[in-house]
Design a protein that fits this description.
By secondary structure, this protein is of the alpha+beta class. The chain has two domains: 168 residues, Transcription factor LuxR-like, autoinducer-binding domain (Beta-Lactamase, 2-Layer Sandwich); 55 residues, Orthogonal Bundle (Arc Repressor Mutant, subunit A), CATH 1.10.10. It is built from ten helices and five strands; from the N terminus they run H-H-E-E-H-H-E-H-E-E-H-H-H-H-H. A five-stranded antiparallel β-sheet has the order 2-1-5-4-3. A hairpin with a 5-residue loop joins strand 4 and strand 5. Helix 1 packs parallel to helix 6, helix 2 runs antiparallel to helix 6 and helix 8 crosses helix 9. The longest helix is centred in the middle third of the chain and has 27 residues. The radius of gyration is 19 Å and the shape is globular.
Length: 239
């Protein structure tokens, strides 16, 4: 490994939260010509991907569309991670554009968001769990050395995020959410939007969003769906 990569990996291993890893990853992938990235686990078919996302550097609008519509199960790049242990260019993920219309839709919509090329590193974990680090950008100038360095970077970034999540889950004391936060999360679990919850509870939409954010911080979760899952798991709310 070159000195810069070693320094980056050391910096990743010293981070204690995802915000620090986000900043390091943005700086690191820029040196290889990439702009955005996502680090995630890959769920079984039909399972919501959002609780599995460890860190997103995607465009917010595309992230919301991709995760809420279950595109992970249609995405040929994500699917190919189950078939190989080696990093690959997005363009090398096999699918039939004529026959596999859902996969074509995902790829075409991604292109509309400026995500037509990329580099993907499959992550294979214990117990058969799958993960992925996917980078957005042109791969035409990547040589073998750069691909190896990106592979190493992805493994360490994914590993550190999993370590932080595991430590937070296993060691950090859980703080009870407030009754108002619990009420809001119940409506989130019922599929209500922030504006709908505001109308039901008499709160402002801004206050509803703040309660969700506060509950997320208390439970150490990544997003609202993950927050609801954890609240139910720890019997903080009942549906």
């Amino acid at each position: 490994m070159n000195a810069d990569l070693m320094s980056t990996i050391e910096a990743l291993q010293q981070q204690t939260d995802s915000a620090g890893i986000l900043e390091i990853m943005y700086d690191a992938i820029e040196d290889y010509g990439f702009e955005r990235f996502i680090i995630s686990g890959l769920p079984d078919r039909g399972v919501d991907v959002r609780p599995f996302v460890l860190l997103s550097g995607w465009n917010d609008e595309w992230y919301e569309r991709y995760t809420s519509l279950g595109y992970v199960h249609l995405d040929p790049v994500a699917r190919n991670c189950f078939s190989t242990t080696l990093p690959f260019d997005w363009s090398d993920a096999p699918f039939d554009r004529e026959a596999d219309l859902p996969a074509r839709r995902v790829m075409d919509e991604a292109r509309d968001f400026g995500m037509d090329e990329g580099f993907c590193v499959p992550i294979h974990m214990e117990g058969g769990m799958q993960g992925v680090v996917s980078l957005v950008g042109d791969t035409s100038e990547l040589d073998d050395k750069s691909r190896l360095e990106l592979h190493m970077l992805a493994l360490y970034a994914h590993g550190q995020l999993r370590f932080l999540n595991t430590r937070r889950t296993d060691l950090a004391p859980r703080r009870a959410i407030t009754s108002r936060e619990g009420e809001v999360l119940k409506w989130v679990a019922a599929g209500k939007t922030a504006s709908e919850i505001a109308a039901i509870t008499g709160l402002s939409q801004r206050t509803v969003n703040q309660h969700c954010e506060n509950a997320q911080k208390r439970l150490g979760t990544n997003n609202r769906v993950h927050t609801v899952v954890e609240a139910i798991r720890h019997k903080l709310i009942a549906l």
